[in-house]
Amino acid sequence: MAKNLSTREENYSQWYNDLVVRADLAENSAVRGCMVIKPYGYAIWEKMQRALDDMFKKTGHVNAYFPLFIPKSFFSREADHVEGFAKECAVVTHYRLKNAPDGSGVVVDEEAKLEEELIIRPTSETIIWDTYKNWIQSYRDLPLLINQWANVVRWEMRTRLFLRTAEFLWQEGHTAHASREEAVEESEKILGIYTEFAENWMAMPVIQGIKSPNERFAGAVETYCVEALMQDGKALQAGTSHFLGQNFAKAFDVKFLSKENKLEYVWATSWGVSTRLIGALIMAHSDDHGLVLPPKLAPIQVVIVPIYKKEEELAQISGVAESIKDALEAKGISVRYDNRDTFKPGWKFSEYEFKGVPVRLAIGPRDLQNGTVEVARRDTLEKDVLQIADIENKIEHLLEQIQRNLYQKALTFREDNTHIVDTWEDFTETLETKGGFILAHWDGTSETEEAIKEKTKATIRAIPLNKQFSGEGKCIYSGKPSDQRVYFARAY
Amino acid sequence: MAKNLSTREENYSQWYNDLVVRADLAENSAVRGCMVIKPYGYAIWEKMQRALDDMFKKTGHVNAYFPLFIPKSFFSREADHVEGFAKECAVVTHYRLKNAPDGSGVVVDEEAKLEEELIIRPTSETIIWDTYKNWIQSYRDLPLLINQWANVVRWEMRTRLFLRTAEFLWQEGHTAHASREEAVEESEKILGIYTEFAENWMAMPVIQGIKSPNERFAGAVETYCVEALMQDGKALQAGTSHFLGQNFAKAFDVKFLSKENKLEYVWATSWGVSTRLIGALIMAHSDDHGLVLPPKLAPIQVVIVPIYKKEEELAQISGVAESIKDALEAKGISVRYDNRDTFKPGWKFSEYEFKGVPVRLAIGPRDLQNGTVEVARRDTLEKDVLQIADIENKIEHLLEQIQRNLYQKALTFREDNTHIVDTWEDFTETLETKGGFILAHWDGTSETEEAIKEKTKATIRAIPLNKQFSGEGKCIYSGKPSDQRVYFARAY
To answer: FRET label pair with A376: which of A51, A151, A333, A395, CA 20 to 30 Å apart?
Structure first.
């Protein structure tokens, strides 16, 4: 246990909150439900952004920027969308303040009332499709493959740092296509990118699937998703990709002249991941000693701590440390050499352990004599003494090993916590005693899904893709016939 | 003249607007005063961001993210700041919509009224210093060198794409220091970064200076600025860096325990540049044929256009074009090979000329025979025929040459349009007939500055740093003594 951190066993929720705040990732702000993302947390987001942005661009997407504000009337255009999004949101009604007559500060100037209220975007389909109307005339203008990095606001009542905040940062892709097939292919391609990102960068295995109608994005025809399992046995939605059909094209009257010279509605997708992924990253790997970060997303991958008593020793150690730092940086590894004299080595050890730095190197006078360095890895907490010769290749290799190990550990955890059940009793008992993903038969109706949610708080996280887990069976709740198992879990 | 673009001579303002829209940089949105930044325009912003972000990080700054919303009362804390910023702004008063009773859509739910209104940040000093209060206890917590990339909103009445919009994107640095000297040094260091960026990346020469009290940032002790000259002889503020003294520390009660164990107020700076720079970039270099972009910020640096009649020719040309593309990309040069058969070469030539691509390569059947390629540079519109051998080094060199040439041309323009005047008659006549920067003596009073502004619309753009243009003289307006010339101009 570090810094009086609650253990996961004692209180998982408290452990998470303490960790986020004490590891300097984020904190609550003076504004209800809005967080401040601190530099260490933001550095993780920047690494996530860079990796995702590179993948989007490699697949032909470009970035753009659309307004923060959406006219209120835009939401009413798509019937499902307005139900899903235009409720709990921040509404701008005025555009001016004035000095209070009593000198007590500033007050809203009632004369500066907007004719139509503006909503802070909770998601941008409406304003973007209103814009696309002017951009699309012919099949030659398609596809449009556009992404936006932006802040969005949803007025959540109960908020938790990263996982659910009133304002959050995300990317939202909005693409336009000439055919249904191409749009579906795009939705699935993005699901592939999200999967690759979760597994190869976050070291977090995910299941891929589609959402049941109840859990579908408001306005979508199909919602694809990736879902991960957290250490407390709850699921977390890590990304969604929506096939929107022609719903928004119809709502905003976006038509194009096809190759066959026919006027048709455009096909659409939208997809996004958010700063919520930082919450997932924390909960997937961290332990009672603090954060554990996968090397590919760690702001600092290697920290070097000098251990010395006399100033001459520090000078010698610094020589070695700086040359190791240079050699590692030449390999693209980010390194901090912490030679501050205001903190003791023991304090630094626990600080970097708490902050999840994947590899710690310590160099003392004896190491100087022996040409060695002490290496500690954060994931297993194992220590080793290595010869300095060729250290950059050894560390590069070690970082890859840690990345793989974290993935493997999370995958084993998920496998151990995925249960196949066939009866209602087994279902409820598994939920109560073990948690995790439960693969069970479902009759395909919303009524059953809602009844199960009401009784157990478990929801259908995903209907597996490609007929995985297909086969005849009976719905655990209604007993009606079912031809495929689906993933149930309690979720964040 | 391209695409029926107005010429600069005819109507500079119209030329600018047409260019922004027709070159696919940005357009007005459905929301008053807010723009859509289109992919080509946003790609320029991304290049600007990357260059600036690298410079900030190299000088020890880190990024973070603070809330979009600021409680109304925060603005009243700093007396000057509230006057400057808390007036024309977007005010959030409610957090919920509901279905209209008459079924006509959604309306504001009057029951969901916020206790305290929230302002969409016009700048973030207040919320950030309210946060810093909890982050700073001792000198060991200083300096804090934090930057934020964000959207901000100022409810401007008259807007112009990029130059003045209700919502815009920017970076805002907010630093905290233990001493006045260190904070002043930081403000000046950032001014150096802005200068380097404007001159080396944007190829846009700037003058450095400080603002007169009238033009100072609301809440600052000193505002440093860089100012550039546009082709119509008007000045444009390209970046500001503010030394805030202890004003915000006092307003938000942020104190630290010094090394000498004394409780002192923290010293502050803030600084920013915005998407306005894209407007400056356009106006600094572009011509009546369209955009002219400096190679370092051009989304596409080189375009290759095949010229062919038969399919076999295209196949052969493509072989050569792809190998040139690979060789250029290996040097980090961004290349588009436009082999679309839906557009003719002539259309492509004028398209890329209009979009300011610095270098165009054309390859036809005769080039194949001769081992040559036709090279056209956008800045001078000159064409040349080059041997393909070693083409990547020739093009790399050419791009550097274009970058330098644009800077040199803009510098010559500024020098030709900087006038030293000594009398009021000369001042007003120069303003009317020539425009540009006018170096003139000023008595140092706000009254004189305001009178000059009222009579001529010219403002003091900068008081030169380091006693440049110092020397005894008489104020052009009041005739009172002055010991330094200052830069006057009409400005954007």
So the answer is: A51
Question: What residues of chain A lie within 8 A of the CB of B120, using their CB?
Answer: 68, 92, 120
Q: For residues A429 and A458, is the Cβ–Cβ distance under 8 A? A: no
Whether A171 contacts A147, CB under 8 Å: yes
Q: What is the pLDDT of residues A100-153, one digit of tens each?
A: 888 888 899 999 999 999 999 999 999 999 999 999 999 999 999 999 999 999
* CATH class name, domain B300-397: alpha beta
**pLDDT 10s digits, B177-187:** 999 999 999 99
Query: Domain B12-65+123-285 maps to which CATH number in 1.10.10.1320, 3.30.930.10, 1.10.3720.10, 3.30.559.70?
Result: 3.30.930.10
Asked if B55 and A74 count as a contact pair (C-beta separation under 8 A), the reply is no
pLDDT at residue A3, rounded to an integer: 66
Q: Do B63 and A46 touch (CB under 8 A)?
A: yes
Kindly list the domain boundaries of chain A, sorted by start residue.
Answer: 12-285, 300-398, 418-489
CATH number of B418-489: 3.30.110.30
Q: At what angle do helices B276-285 and B39-58 cross, to 10 degrees?
A: 110
Kindly report the nearest CA distance between residue B463 and chain A, in angstroms: 32
Q: Is the ipTM of this complex over 0.90?
A: yes
Contact B31 A71 (CB under 8 A): yes
Contact A72, B97 (CB under 8 A): yes
Of the candidates A134, A480, A465, A492, the one whose C-alpha atom is nearest the C-alpha of residue A279 is A492
How far does A384 lie from chain B, in Å, by closest CA? 32
CB spacing of B106 vs A72 below 8 angstroms? yes
* Percent above pLDDT 70 for chain A: 99
Q: φ, ψ for residue A117 (rounded to 5)? A: -65, 150
In angstroms, what separates the C-alpha of A155 from chain B's closest C-alpha? 7
Looking at beta carbons, which residues of chain A come within 8 Å of B98?
87
Of B42, B72, B106, nearest to A106 by CB-CB distance is B72
- Type of residue found at B370: N
Pairing of strands B35-37, A263-265: unpaired
CATH classification (class only), A12-285:
alpha beta
What is d(CA B466, CA B149) in angstroms, rounded to the nearest whole number?
31
Provide the pLDDT for residue B75: 86
* pLDDT, position A332: 97
pLDDT band of B84, cuts 50, 70, 90: confident
Tens digits of residue pLDDT in B30-65: 999 999 999 999 999 999 999 999 999 999 999 999
Whole-number Å distance between alpha carbons of A314 and B465: 42
Q: In the CATH hierarchy, which top-level class contains the domain A300-398?
A: alpha beta
**Interchain CB distance below 8 Å, B36 and A95:** no
- A326/chain B closest Cα distance in angstroms: 16
CB contact under 8 A, A64 and B153: no
Is A86 within 8 Å of B106 when comparing Cβ atoms? yes
Taking contacts as CB-CB distances below 8 angstroms, the residues of chain B near A65 are 36-37, 42, 45, 169
CA distance readout (Å), A389 to A202, A373, A395, A400: 31, 10, 11, 19
Mutate to test the interface with B, among A37, A63, A106 (most CBs of B within 10 A): A106
| Cβ contact, residue pair B42, A64, below 8 Å | yes
Report the run of H or E that residue B13 belongs to, with start and end: helix B12-22
Question: Searching chain B, which residue's CA lies closest to the CA of residue A36?
Answer: B66
Helix ranges (H only) for B204-267 are 247-251
* pLDDT recorded at residue A466: 81
Q: At what angle do helices B391-416 and B276-285 cross, to 10 degrees?
A: 90
CB contact under 8 A, A91 and B89: no
Min Cα–Cα distance to chain A from B174, Å: 13
